[in-house]
TrEMBL record:
Active site as annotated: 133 (proton donor/acceptor), 217 (acyl-thioester intermediate)
Identification of the protein by name: Sortase A
Pfam families according to UniProt: Sortase
Biological classification of the source: Bacteria, Bacillati, Actinomycetota, Actinomycetes, Geodermatophilales
Species: Geodermatophilus tzadiensis
Assigned keywords, A-Z: Hydrolase, Membrane, Transmembrane, Transmembrane helix
Domain of life of the native organism: Bacteria
GO molecular function: hydrolase activity
TM spans (from-to): 20-40
SUPFAM superfamilies: Sortase (SSF63817)
Length: 253
């Protein structure tokens, strides 16, 4: 068979190049739309879920008997997927608060932060551990790397409020300089599950205090590592009767 004329061969390459270009453009548009969905559209869905969960929790708490002047009790257990407590981290914003669900599967984390099943309840000995998305699905822990030693993390329950303080040296800002030996902030591999042990970083050991741990992906837009914040309970907590508007720590930012 005779070779195709040079002009015909050029047309073939031109057609192939055009088709490849269109495919790449289409793929780029699809990726862009996916990024928009993950970064912004899911935030709208999560905000709607948070409003619904907050309304439900407030209704349930209003119906609960008041704690009076006694120390608030740790929150009662709830089923996986149920609203559990409200988390306040003033460093992340003056009005930053999120309803926390029980459980840390995507079903829960798509609606807000989740409480690791099997970890301590807030206010009791052990490690009350929570997870949340860094980017997308409301991005609750987007700025978690901004926390500093001594910063408050407040957990609101039906009875009242428990205030935790990020470990480390508040004077120097050194997150590793805590008498407990537990760092206030660390970056670890996803396999390092001992960060949510009863005593953070000590798998198999019993609780040596009342701790709180927050975990999220690190760095932003990646799940290669985990950013972890550890805090310790600062006092017995206050009831709603003692502090109707919450503890003073809520105004620290």
């Amino acid at each position: 068979m005779a070779d195709a004329p040079p002009v015909a061969r050029a047309d073939v390459w031109r057609t192939l190049a055009s088709g490849l270009g269109q495919t790449l453009v289409t793929a780029g548009v699809v990726l862009l739309l996916y990024a928009v969905y993950q970064l912004w559209v899911t935030d709208l869905f999560t905000a709607r879920d948070q409003d619904r969960l907050a309304d439900r929790l407030r209704t349930e708490w209003t119906a609960a008997p008041p704690a009076g002047d006694r120390a608030p009790a740790p929150p009662a257990p709830v089923g996986v997927g149920e609203p559990y407590v409200v988390l306040h981290v003033p460093r992340l914003g003056e009005d930053w608060s999120r309803v926390v669900l029980e459980g840390t599967t995507e079903d829960q984390l798509s609606q807000g932060p989740g409480h690791y099943v099997g970890t301590a309840a807030p206010g009791e000995p052990g490690n009350a551990a929570f997870a949340g998305h860094r980017v997308g699905r409301g991005s609750p822990f987007l700025e978690l790397d901004a926390v500093r030693p001594g910063d408050p993390v407040v957990v609101e329950t039906a009875d009242g409020w428990f205030t935790y303080r990020v470990l480390g040296d508040p004077v120097s800002g050194d997150v590793t300089a805590d008498p407990s030996g537990i760092p206030g902030v660390e970056v670890v591999a996803p396999s390092r599950t001992e960060v949510i042990a009863p005593t953070p970083g000590a798998p198999g050991a019993g609780p040596t205090g009342a701790y709180l741990t927050l975990t999220t992906c690190h760095p932003r837009y990646s799940a290669q590592q985990r950013l972890v914040v550890h805090a310790v309970l600062d006092g017995p907590g206050v009831t709603r009767a003692q502090a109707p508007d919450g503890p003073p720590a809520l105004t620290e930012g």
